[in-house]
Design goal:
109 residues; mainly beta; 8 strands; globular
């Protein structure tokens, strides 16, 4: 009986700390490291020491969407990670208009 309680407790604790780590890169661009933990999207460029944290907007089994908004310059960055195809698409919008997009190929670590 005690073993069942310990196993269920272990499963509960491990599910609370469930995380996924992806390493994304593209030719002639910088590498990005993404960590998804507790419905938060952490990303860090390869040269940066500090990782930025974004709240996950849409989290289903295929795609994770996070958004970063700069209020004063009216700029928005949208990070879309497709887990099945293992692709990261970054879209930059300025004043509602598409400015640039970047595509990264990811591998799960």
């Amino acid at each position: 009986m005690k073993k069942i309680v310990y196993i269920s407790l272990f499963v509960f604790v491990s599910s609370c700390f469930h995380q996924q780590i992806y390493s994304c890169s593209a030719p002639r661009q910088t590498d990005i490291f993404i960590e998804i933990k507790n419905n938060k999207f952490f990303f860090r460029y390869s040269g940066a020491k500090k990782s930025e944290e974004l709240k996950v907007l849409i989290n289903n089994k295929m795609e994770i969407l996070a958004e970063k908004h700069y209020k004063y310059i009216d700029s928005k960055w949208i990070y879309s990670l497709n887990k099945i195809e293992k692709k990261l698409n970054i879209t930059q919008l300025n004043k509602g208009r598409l400015k640039s997009t970047w595509n990264f190929k990811c591998t799960k670590i």
